[in-house]
Amino acid sequence: MIRAEAMSKAFGPTVALDKVSFEVENGELFGFIGPDGGGKTTLFRILVSLLVPDGGRATVIGLDVVRDYRALRQRVGYMAGRFSLYPDLSVEENLTFFASVFGTTVQREYEQIKPIYTQLEPFKDRRAAALSGGMKQKLALCCALVHRPDILFLDEPTTGVDAVSRREFWDLLGVLKKGGLTTVVSTPYMDEATRCDRIALIDRGRLLGIDTPAGITGSFGRLLVGIRTTDHYRALLALRRYQHAASVFPFGDVIHYTDDRMNAAPGDIAKDVKTYLVGSGFNDASVEPLTPTVEDVFIARTANPESRIPNPGRMA
Amino acid sequence: MSDLAIHVTDLTRTFGAFTAVDHITFDVKPGEVFGFLGANGAGKTTAIRMLIGLLQPSSGSARVAGYDVARDTEQVKRSIGYMSQRFSLYEDLTPRENIRLYGGIYGLTRDQIRQRTAEMLERLGFSSVADTAVRSLPLGWRQKLAFSVALVHRPQIVFLDEPTSGVDPITRRQFWELIYDAASRGTTVLVTTHYMDEAEYCDRVSIMVAGRIAAMGTPTALKGEFAVESIDELFVRLARPDAGGAGKAGRVQ
Q: What is the Cα–Cα distance from A79 to A73, expressed in whole angstroms?
């Protein structure tokens, strides 16, 4: 469905995409997971023919994103990162407008948009500007779908949206997937990765890995230990001082810890950490092996100290 | 004068027939990190706008740093820092210039500005980029600088509106260490976020639903009270009582 080879794009001295290659299969729900400045928006804009890459090439539905842009634009649905509907038009007017631009009508495409539109229908006369964040995104999704695209590109559809609306939005993507639609979606929220068939981790214009969510978390390569204690922050600082600590990060009310001893048995590491914590006064600390999350993997692959030094030549 | 950093009683704001904030009552203690959570449209922004003196309450009262938000708006603004995800820094200016600008706006003396600039650049590890335009710094660095700039006049209370949105996972966590650090030195922090793991880092959280505070307490106490595993789970349950809990596709009829 998509084949991208060594795609690069720079804006002046800023390298937004650095030789990015990947493929997306027919019917896949494929996620680009990474923070702002990773290159997600540049990548999406190239794939929907709004930007021309400096190097490399890409085809979407067999169409070259540069050469065949006219044909391509008829067949892709694109939801930009910024809310891009008409704020002064109502829900229904926006939808009618986007349908007519593509030479169709809401009535004719109703089946395609029905799962989403039924949630919007109670507000169909409301101005788009007056919708809540989650509803705006559902309307934008509807407008991107109304011409029956073969593939859907959603650039950060859940950014700035509350945790509940985010779940609902992903539920809708699941429904569309069941209908056979290929969807490429980007998000800075690592916990959304598990909703995808496959994901690509992206940071500073580079891909840090492409796999199923389980494949990504399975590649962590280190024993991960979770620590719970009432004195969370002090325990975090204490663990950083522990002689074998490789990484110590807060994840909600659990501290995720990895050890620098590559050959020690998991049970021994957990026991040693527990002993250290109790010895440091954290008597209630519980220490248990954990299954890594996508966020653990992302952190591990971006944690080299150099990547934390500000580099003005890079995209912010 | 109360000893509370924020003292809110029956605070209400209506817009025409719509009640955006509906009799909310809560206190925040000095040095506390208070997570102010809620779904989009639940009334958080309206409540914060009242607390920082930008919007008059319809009824009820709120005192911030001991000042009445309806009457003493100027004193309130001087006692607080504010950082939003959208706008906090002038991107064409350098970190050094941003600090100087905000120091000047808050009426610091030249000596104070010089001293605090040096301190802040040192603490942030920004010496090498002190004279680089903010625009060219990574987002996470801009956010850290924005936080420090919001504290340049040593406010008693700082309001952070989605400070970590879109920031990479490591920087997001480093940002929270800055929050803890400020709180440990006595600054009161009121923070909004859509990352539910961050809610767990707060001393206490409140969850707004349809203009009211539906739950408030320490994360541990709330999880016990509602018998949930995480604040995420609680948030879902409160914000969509009809959804029947987490991640169900049953919303789509």
A: 13
